[in-house]
Specification:
The chain is an alpha+beta fold. The chain is built from 5 helices and 5 strands; from the N terminus they run E-E-H-H-H-E-E-E-H-H. Strands 1-5-4-3-2 form a 5-stranded antiparallel sheet, with helices on one face. Helix 1 crosses helix 3 (62-84), helix 2 (42-58) runs antiparallel to helix 3 and helix 2 runs antiparallel to helix 5. The longest helix is centred in the middle third of the chain and has 23 residues, at 62-84.
């Protein structure tokens, strides 16, 4: 898996609370619809990876699941943020996450890659938090 972090062409700016809201909405939807409890731990991201695998096996087009994947990515970002003190930052695309070491991570892109069979939110968290926990 390729690292899911980037070096921006311009300095990013802090973003509002939208990613945290997307994550909370995803937690609530999975609790109600799939009876899956997400607790904002790194371990829970491996369960989210399995959910993404199941969705992929069902074969819906990306356009039909892009908002769900955005929520999964936001959830992964919130897990990383809670473990490292990272903050959400605006870029020219989806918000990214800036860890205290200055690296920028793209959890929404990683959720898309997971849907395409070439990514993992659990692995992203492991890489982003390696040796950097609060």
């Amino acid at each position: 898996m390729t690292a899911s972090y980037l070096t921006p062409a311009y300095p990013p700016a802090p973003v509002d609370g939208r990613p945290a809201r997307w994550a909370a909405d995803t937690v609530a939807a999975l609790r109600e619809g799939a009876r899956l409890r997400l607790d904002y731990t790194a371990r829970s991201l491996w369960r989210v990876d399995r959910v993404i695998d199941e969705i992929r096996r069902d074969g819906p087009p990306y356009e039909a699941v892009c908002r769900v994947l955005r929520g999964f990515g936001a959830y992964a970002g919130e897990v990383i943020a809670r473990q490292t003190g990272a903050e959400w930052w605006a870029t020219d695309g989806d918000p990214c996450l800036r860890t205290p070491d200055g690296r920028l991570w793209t959890p929404m892109d990683e959720a898309r890659r997971a849907y395409e069979g070439d990514g993992s939110l659990g692995a992203l968290c492991r890489e982003a938090t390696a040796g950097r926990l609060r």
